[in-house]
Write a structure and sequence with these properties.
Length: 237
């Protein structure tokens, strides 16, 4: 029996054929959707940032303020640690562990306790600022009385002369202040004020009284500084 073979050409519709997606197809479908999604997120983020603009700015300002405060704190710490006041404190701390006989003063200076005093023999017309400048050239300053014991000593050596002190009157604040910026303690001693326009002070003849800041023929200069280790003991150490 003869066999018949039937050939058929199937013309399938375009939509039923499987096909590999091309690059343009991918870009037009998924990638386009992804781009739209990202833009949507950015838009939302921008909108959120705009809506909370004050909050964003306040955070930036707060961060800047914190940095400035930290810098100021560091600056103050460095000044306190390495400034001149710190140097004198460290010097006093070091000297406290040294024997009394190892400490001394330069020639023409008098030693009392842990301080050296210079009593100028000159009675020249010299104002308060010039007198302080003279002390500065000798690496010292005008005297600051910080104890009753020191007060007693200075009264004993100034029985017949007046010596300037590092104490002045400030008219605006109506107060007496030392050159170390400390206020005068009236319980330690009273200030005899013979003339209202005398804003400087001098010690002598058993009292502390006012003196003209412009200088006087009867006022002498007096300086003080910390004692130092004598050279012979420096070599031994």
């Amino acid at each position: 029996m003869a066999e018949y073979v039937l050939y058929a050409d199937l013309n399938l519709p375009q939509s039923t054929r499987p096909r590999i997606p091309t690059v343009p197809d991918v870009q037009d479908s998924d990638c386009t959707y992804a781009e739209v999604k990202v833009k949507s997120q950015d838009t939302n983020a921008a909108a959120d940032c705009k809506s909370s603009g004050k909050s964003c700015c306040s955070r930036k300002h707060a961060a800047i303020l914190v940095v400035i405060i930290l810098i100021l704190v560091l600056a103050v710490y460095l000044i306190i640690t390495y400034g001149p006041t710190a140097g004198s404190q460290n010097s006093s701390t070091t000297l406290s562990h040294i024997r009394e006989e190892e400490l001394g003063c330069p020639p023409l200076w008098r030693k009392h306790g842990r301080k050296c005093y210079f009593f100028s023999p000159e009675k020249k017309m010299k104002d308060w600022e010039a007198s302080r400048g003279e002390c500065t050239t000798m690496e010292s300053d005008l005297v600051v009385i910080d104890s009753r014991e020191e007060m007693s000593y200075l009264l004993s050596v100034s029985k017949y002369d007046y010596y300037l002190l590092g104490l002045k009157y400030f008219e605006k604040k109506k107060e007496w202040k030392w050159i170390n910026n400390m206020k005068h303690d009236p319980t330690m001693f009273n200030i005899t004020r013979a003339y209202s326009d005398y804003d400087c002070t001098a010690i002598g003849f058993g009292e502390v009284g006012t003196a003209p800041c412009g200088g006087s023929q009867t006022t002498q200069n007096m300086c003080e500084k910390d004692v130092t280790i004598l050279k012979r003991y420096q070599k031994e150490s």
